[in-house]
């Protein structure tokens, strides 16, 4: 948004690269496609012989080598962005050695030179993804890809980098993966691993299985009509098409034999017979099951809730439709949630008016406290967003079946051509009620620290689970965040599904929920700040350049910042090292 501080656009509103090809890849001549019908639609799965990733230096014409600096230009612990003529690299010096990797975070494109370098890895300044400087491998989330690694050599006191032109342009690297070699052992209605849900947790689980050599059948199923996509971007880049926000292109799934069944809703589970029962009557047997269904948006319960042009943002089609209807019209957003405020930010330059209705006194009070919430509210008000706080909707009025007015319990009547509802969500676990899987009173799947449910061979991950948080005395918590879904999918579901401790040892990762980020809008926190009792703020709230330390008793439990990079990444490194930050340290 041009009139909102640049951090809004720079950090969040970044449209990913378009899918490389919109055409279906033809099957390899040496492999036959698997075809069967689900919901009347033919499903094709091809076995490709050559992985997407390849030797970056196989073609001499694709290689560039350049002198980038003198050996004395960088001190230990320093990073520099260097230009090789056809692209840039990040040059790093640590422990007396030089390393070169991609200079942009593969997640949302943040400049890593502004990140934090510590103990052989660089942490992204925006969302905290972490990369090994020797290998380029991703070691902390969010994100799916690693960084390309480039060759460094020293000649006559000069530092040279040798790199693939393609890698310099893409700035990302997909790890080598195995492929399914045992499809003949299964009929079309059975699989070794069944993943219900195609969000971050499910996709990371499937990818990591392949990365670590798992060569048996993997099937993902989703109610969505699209392959896995970056759902948080639905409220950040609302006019994006599905292929623009796809997490992986279509050929990726074919190449690595990760089967995705779209528009497939699981209606019930037969745990005794290890079978998923789908709404259309289709059944699929499994050996191991991962449930990663996420959540379902809450709807309004007021009079007139069925009128047209009232939306929960759940799909790309929802977001696209809202943008089209809102252009030069009156928009009412119910709920000053992360989603609601992001939609308000996106539409303020497009709509005639944007109004936000919220029960609390200020936005984000529960997450960031009153002072930070009020500063954010002030920024939005300066960009023509009108707030109606401490009230709620009593009625939606229509004219010829379409929304005309939103009536508040305060008595205020708002003109509205479109309404977006962002009042929270509930776990999408209704199909499990009679399954025998342990569900708590709020509908969350209860798992242990290995993401195992009470049923052997059944695991759960992501927004739909509660899990023990070690640094909160193993209190069961639910953390509905993109980064946590990545961590669940990688660190615990995979070793559990594979029944292999070796995989966890190879990954070098441990689930540390106290490093998670909470930043869908402006700010983010490495820590689980549930229940803070004070906030220490440094910087200027009015100028929206600040860092807020959230404390409980004497300990800093979370940090939020705005226009203060890379402070939060620095804090994340401290927490990752197992150190505690005291209140007196930040006052």
From TrEMBL:
Gene Ontology annotations for the cellular component aspect, listed alphabetically: mitochondrion
BP-aspect Gene Ontology terms: execution phase of apoptosis
Ranges where the Rieske domain occurs: 66-161
GO molecular function, one term: metal ion binding
Keywords from the named record: 2Fe-2S, FAD, Flavoprotein, Iron, Iron-sulfur, Metal-binding, Oxidoreductase
Coiled-coil ranges from the UniProt annotation: none
Superkingdom classification of source: Eukaryota
Family: Belongs to the FAD-dependent oxidoreductase family.
Protein name stated in the entry: AIFM3 factor
């Amino acid at each position: 948004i041009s009139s909102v501080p640049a951090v809004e656009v720079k950090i969040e509103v970044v449209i990913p690269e378009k899918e490389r090809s919109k055409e279906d890849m033809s099957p390899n001549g040496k492999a036959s496609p698997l075809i069967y019908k689900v919901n009347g639609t033919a499903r094709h799965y091809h076995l490709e012989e050559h992985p997407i990733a390849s030797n970056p230096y196989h073609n001499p014409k694709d290689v560039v080598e350049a002198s980038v600096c003198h050996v004395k230009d960088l001190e230990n612990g320093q990073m520099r962005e260097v230009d090789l003529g056809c692209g840039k690299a990040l040059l790093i010096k640590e422990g007396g050695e030089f390393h070169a990797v991609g200079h942009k975070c593969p997640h949302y494109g943040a400049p890593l030179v502004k990140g934090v370098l510590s103990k052989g890895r660089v942490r992204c300044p925006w969302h905290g993804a972490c990369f090994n400087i020797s290998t380029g491998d991703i070691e902390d989330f969010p994100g799916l890809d690693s960084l390309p690694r480039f060759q460094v050599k020293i000649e006559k006191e000069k530092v040279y980098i040798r790199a693939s032109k393609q890698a310099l342009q893409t700035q990302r690297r997909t790890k080598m993966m195995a492929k399914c070699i045992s499809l003949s052992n299964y009929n079309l209605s059975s699989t070794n691993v069944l993943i219900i849900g195609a969000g971050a947790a499910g996709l990371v689980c499937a990818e990591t299985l392949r990365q670590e050599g798992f060569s048996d059948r993997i099937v993902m199923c989703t109610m969505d009509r699209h392959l896995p996509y970056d759902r948080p971007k639905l409220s950040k880049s609302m006019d994006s098409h599905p292929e623009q926000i796809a997490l992986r292109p279509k050929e990726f799934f074919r190449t690595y034999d990760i089967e995705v069944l779209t528009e497939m809703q699981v209606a019930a589970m037969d745990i005794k017979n290890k079978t998923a029962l789908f709404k259309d009557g289709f059944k699929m047997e499994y050996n191991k099951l991962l449930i990663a269904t996420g959540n379902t948006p809450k709807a309004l319960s007021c009079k007139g809730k069925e009128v047209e042009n009232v939306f929960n943002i759940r799909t790309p089609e929802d977001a696209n439709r809202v943008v089209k209807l809102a252009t030069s019209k009156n928009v009412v957003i119910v709920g000053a949630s992360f989603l609601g405020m992001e939609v308000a930010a996106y539409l303020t330059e497009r709509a005639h008016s944007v109004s936000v209705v919220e029960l609390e006194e200020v936005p984000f009070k529960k997450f960031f406290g009153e002072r930070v919430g009020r500063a954010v509210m002030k920024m939005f008000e300066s960009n023509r967003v009108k707030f109606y706080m401490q009230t709620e909707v009593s009625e939606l009025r229509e004219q010829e079946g379409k929304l005309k007015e939103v009536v508040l319990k305060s008595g205020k009547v708002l003109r509205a051509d479109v309404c977006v509802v962002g009042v929270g969500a509930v776990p999408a676990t209704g199909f499990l009620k009679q399954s025998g899987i342990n569900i708590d009173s709020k509908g969350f799947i209860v798992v242990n620290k290995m993401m195992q449910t009470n049923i052997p061979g059944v695991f759960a991950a992501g927004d739909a689970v509660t899990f023990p948080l070690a640094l909160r005395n193993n209190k069961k918590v639910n953390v509905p965040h993109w980064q946590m879904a990545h961590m669940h999918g990688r660190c615990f579901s995979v070793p559990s599904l594979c029944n292999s401790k070796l995989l966890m040892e190879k990954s070098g990762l441990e689930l540390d929920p106290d490093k998670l980020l909470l930043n869908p809008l402006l700010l983010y926190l490495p820590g689980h700040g549930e229940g803070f009792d004070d906030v220490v703020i440094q910087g200027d709230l009015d100028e929206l350049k600040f860092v807020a330390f959230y404390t409980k008793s004497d300990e800093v439990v979370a940090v939020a910042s705005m226009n203060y990079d890379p402070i939060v990444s620095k804090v994340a490194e401290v927490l990752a090292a197992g150190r505690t930050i005291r209140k007196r340290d930040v006052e």
